[in-house]
Design brief:
The complex is a heterodimer of chains A (184) and B (235). With 184 residues, chain A is an alpha+beta fold. Chain A has 3 helices and 12 strands. Helix content of chain A is 17%, strand content 43%. In chain A, strand 3 and strand 4 form a beta hairpin. The chains are: A alpha+beta (184), B alpha/beta (235).
Chain lengths: 184, 235
């Protein structure tokens, strides 16, 4: 029944299929996220495209981010990193992952990234917990706000952004400090 | 003219928003989703592939299987025979839109990033819908869910309640999470329930280590689920 239903979607294009994912993730603070990340970057979202995985069972969305600053890891400043997350739409089939980060071209972001399997791209640590959005605060300074949503948290760590937007330079200085610490 | 106005209003309304139901619960949004029991005849069969099980916490395979079955079937409180869970090593591990709802452990495809304990993917056919008059929020239309998988990530330490219905974790719990409580929570998502605002609910968006109270559904969890067109009065 399921195979025939999927075939109908793909061939007739009359129906669309969505998926959603809700996840339980460990509550992480800036220390935990920095330690878990292979790279921490500030950048601008360029564009996104979605595609089926190789075995045609899941849809991925690949988002390109231009790197403006690097707080941890080896991405090149001025280069582009690709972030791969579960979810997206291909033709009439849509997979939406609740809890995963979503990206809008042109938005500035801070991303805590880990290498995705295969190594050619990254994914955010702990889904949308690893994404912050950069905007201008009341005094004109850049601030970062958590973009975590759709997640159930395990544990009770307190992150510096839990109470609201945090000054971007303060955040990056903090991350660089933790990135330089030896792993426990 | 009347027709044009109606179309404009629909366009402004956009996709369905999250639907809050009494008691602090809510239903999965944009669009609302639940299983169409006229298409997927109950019970919704969840296969448990326990060929690989977590070792952190020292639970036995039998304990993990039993707790997972109990977590799924706890939701039969919404309707007798709504769901059924059984050990099935042929159920594919991981996430796949293959029409076989499965629960597996240790994230075989490495799909989940660091920090994730467990995740659920459901697929809903937005071309297929069903509706009912719900007890709390009136007439609603739902997209048909036609598949759902739950995967536990690797590397975590798990515990269980000491007995069915107990809030006490097994002796020696040390920074472990209640596997049955997390499985019950994820199964709620498979059925179409979003998070709750009440800390005591299984569907609340937070878990504490060594808290084994979440495998028992609260009155609010059940009330949220009663709005998903599964009750005999709804279908």
């Amino acid at each position: 029944m399921r195979s025939s239903a999927l075939l109908l979607v793909l061939t007739a294009g009359l129906l669309s299929v969505r998926s959603s994912q809700a996840s339980v993730v460990l509550k992480l603070d800036e220390v935990g996220l920095t330690r878990a990340a292979d790279a921490v970057v500030v950048g601008e979202v360029l564009d996104s495209r979605s595609e089926w995985n190789e075995v045609h069972t899941l849809i991925w969305t690949l988002t390109r981010v231009r790197v403006d600053d690097v707080a941890k890891g080896t991405p090149a400043r001025g280069g582009v990193v690709t972030v791969r997350e579960v979810g997206g739409r291909v033709g009439d089939v849509e997979a939406r992952m609740i809890g995963a980060p979503e990206f809008v071209p042109g938005e500035r972001v801070v991303l805590f990234l880990e290498h995705a399997p295969g190594g050619a791209s990254f994914r955010t640590v702990a889904l949308s917990e690893g994404k912050l959005v950069v905007s201008r605060g009341p005094d004109g300074r850049a601030v970062a706000t958590s973009a975590a949503r759709g997640l159930a948290f395990a544990g009770q760590a307190n992150a510096m952004w839990d109470a609201g937007p945090v000054d971007l330079e303060v955040l990056l200085t903090t991350v660089r400090g933790h990135a330089a610490e030896p792993r426990p | 003219m009347r027709r044009v106005v109606a179309l404009i209003l629909l366009a402004l309304a956009g996709p369905a928003a999250a639907l809050d139901v009494p008691c602090g619960g809510r239903l999965l949004d944009n669009p609302l989703r639940s299983w169409n029991l006229a298409v997927t005849r109950p019970p919704i069969a969840m296969g448990i592939n326990s060929t690989v099980v977590p070792t952190g916490g020292g639970l036995t395979r039998s304990q993990i299987e039993g707790a997972t079955i109990a977590a799924v079937q706890a939701w039969n409180v919404l309707r007798t025979g709504l769901v059924h869970a059984a050990v099935d090593s042929s159920c594919p591990r991981g996430f796949a839109h293959d029409g076989k709802p499965c629960i597996s452990y240790e994230d075989p495809a490495g799909t989940m990033s660091g920090g994730v304990l467990a995740a659920t993917v459901i697929w809903a056919d937005t071309g297929g819908t069903h509706g009912c008059t719900t007890p709390d929020v009136g007439a609603q239309t739902f997209s048909d869910i036609d598949d759902g998988d739950i995967v536990f990530a690797d590397g975590w330490s798990w515990t269980l309640p000491t007995a069915p219905g107990s809030d006490i974790c097994l002796n020696g719990c040390n920074k472990s999470y209640d596997l049955e409580g997390v499985a019950t929570h994820e199964m709620g998502h498979v059925l179409g329930i979003d998070h709750s605002a009440n800390e005591a609910d299984t569907m609340f968006a937070s878990f504490s280590s060594c808290d084994c109270s979440k495998s028992s559904l609260s009155a609010c969890d059940i009330q949220a689920g009663s709005n998903l067109c599964y009750g005999t009065g709804c279908q």
